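Cross-posting from the modeling subforum.

Setting up a comparison between two proteins and wanted a second pair of eyes on the formatting. Protein 1 (sequence, then structure tokens):
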Amino acid sequence: MTDFDRLLATDQGADAITITPVSEAGFDAFLGGLPELARTAVAAAGFKGRADTALFLPGGTGRDWSLAVGLGASEAPGRWTLAAAANQLPEGRYRFSGPLPPQALHGWLMAQHRFSKYRKPDDARGPRQLLADPAAVSRAIADANAVAELRDLIDTPAEDLGPGEVEAVIRALAESVGGKLQAVVGEALIDQNFPAIHAVGRASPRKPRLIAMDWGDPQHPLVAIVGKGVCFDTGGLNLKPGNSMALMKKDMGGAAHAIALARLLIARRLKLRLKLVVAAVDNAVSGDSIRPGDVISTRKGLSVEVGNTDAEGRLVLADALAFAAEANPALILDFATLTGAARVALGPDLPALFANDDALADGLLAAGAAADDPLWRLPLWQPYTRLFRSDIADLNNNAEGGFAGAIVGGLFLERFVPKGTPWAHVDTYAWNGTPKPGRPKGAAALSLFAALGLLESRFS
């Protein structure tokens, strides 16, 4: 894990190199205030203050120097403003020249994080340390540690991260914070009424499991955080083609988000009780795989005809949501890499949000906008429940005709949440296909800070 304590420190007035923000609108004023040598450097580089750009600036003597970073159309630094700078700078201490929102520290830290489990780190420059407001340092480091763990979990190949390893991560978290852990594994899932989780995971030699952690003061309101933890998704007997299967180590991205959010809620010491619930399975192929046309039972008692074994995420979440709801939480949030349809509709950067409560949805959208972590709400359009009807069971896990796939996934999950319980479902990609400053190709935290902001606003 990256040692973020080396990358961020309390500003006590030590010597440091200056980082100056430049917006596109303020570029001319910035340029007019530079010495001639620096103006020449700006012209040569074509720097205009665009977002995700940075430029070394020589001083008046040519011996001292500073750095300019582009803000783009914004007038204030955002979450990723400093990421491009952190990628370019040599080892040393740096200080931002103006007001620095706490969330902007995140880009500085994450730009210097590397997933190095399988190779030596390729960055030999040493740490670039930013000096910051003391009140923001510890929070920024906690945020970075949570996101680094999220990324590392998703980036780890399924060979080294199965249901047992996911349990071990949650068990370690519970032990570190005084939480209570429950794990229901293998055939015990049948005995303890988690039949859908068992059905999806039974084909793998790595035993499926329901993992739950409880933490917090019993006098506080209960919040349930649920994550889809499909550690590898072959598609089952409805086998995915190779190009679709290639990234399926990331199909536990919902679980990684749920774990990271739990870690951050505990670090913030919010006035809530937490129930973290993760269904961890492999969707594998063997003689014991569930088959198209099978009818399986669920914890809630609804029967489901398996129209497609590759729509397995909603099956494991059905049991996980029903279990979480039994504790009568004040609200439920679930995270899942659930549908390709959400990516077709909104692309890789914008998670789809579904909610049965307008106030909860509005709060998440507002928190996402404030945290530079956007979501987009899609409707739980009730007439589309006809698309997953079954002639022989209560539900089908597959939509007829392939239309409205993301909405159908949300509507299916809604059937396992009690009426009157506020619930939101985030269908996230959890992946960057194209590298950006601070966000390399690979695992991505999408919607994490939106959810954190919403819960902070309600339970601080």
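Protein 2 (same layout):
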Amino acid sequence: MSKAIRFERTGGPEVMKWVDVPVGDPGEGEIRVRQHAVGLNYIDVYFRSGLYPLPLPGGLGMEAAGEVAAVGPGVTSLAVGDRVAYVARPPGAYAEERVLGAAQVVKLPDALSYEQAASVMLQGLTAQYLLRRTYAVKPGDTILIQAAAGGVGLLVCQWAKALGATVIGTVGSDDKAAIAKAHGCDHPIVYTRENFTKRVREITNGAGVPVVYDSIGRDTFTGSLDCLAPLGLFVSFGNASGPLPPIDSSEFAGRGSLFFTRPTLFTYMSKRADYEAMSAELFDVLASGKVKTSINQRYALADVARAHEDLEARKTTGSTVLMP
């Protein structure tokens, strides 16, 4: 038997239980992974609370890193002892060990630690597709990232800066503004006391930005649209403050023929070749030092309820890892 977090009903952090679970041997095309570090992400809260429905009872957690403990029939690309990392569905990474399809993991370079990988697979691959594919950031661009001091935000700030962009970011406090600035955010805006739309217009001399990356949702929707230049792109990739209001297309027409997209990581990485290419680019920018992980919190996996409480209270910055 192995230990894992399971929940039988949606609700607050208290619904998560640390229980014994059978793991079993890997089947055809599968591997068993002994996990050394697990990532914590806001999407875990969405699943736990019921905002994103899951079959219950079930597990939580989308990403982890560890070593291959067993290999099933037909698996030739991996061997026992290989270091691997993944972001995968269905959720279930909150576990000491689990069985996965071999195609769901990528090999982890020696240059990266298990904690680095576990903290960055979901958030780092999200930053990759946002900056490289959803809107291909180029030198001279000025971009806006909401929640700039969060896990994805800090990665976007660094990566966009490395690509030659000017980065504007919103944060909730002076402490978070300092963190964002230290990670490449040229213009941190403390939204609790500043009108971020007005500040973006001031910074851009009235022009607005070509893209807004918004993971906050309801509270920033209208303000984000007002930051965009004509033909700008509003990228909604999260709902930390709640779902967006019903979309009225005239909101986009009246502000200058704006574009809207609601991307998901698993669409962008649905092809194995894309998953490998995205991971390789992420690992390269991490190994080069252009982008650094910021693991600012560590919790025992058994204490994940406290980690969720802190995440929802916005007490965390950067990335958080759970240690099995």
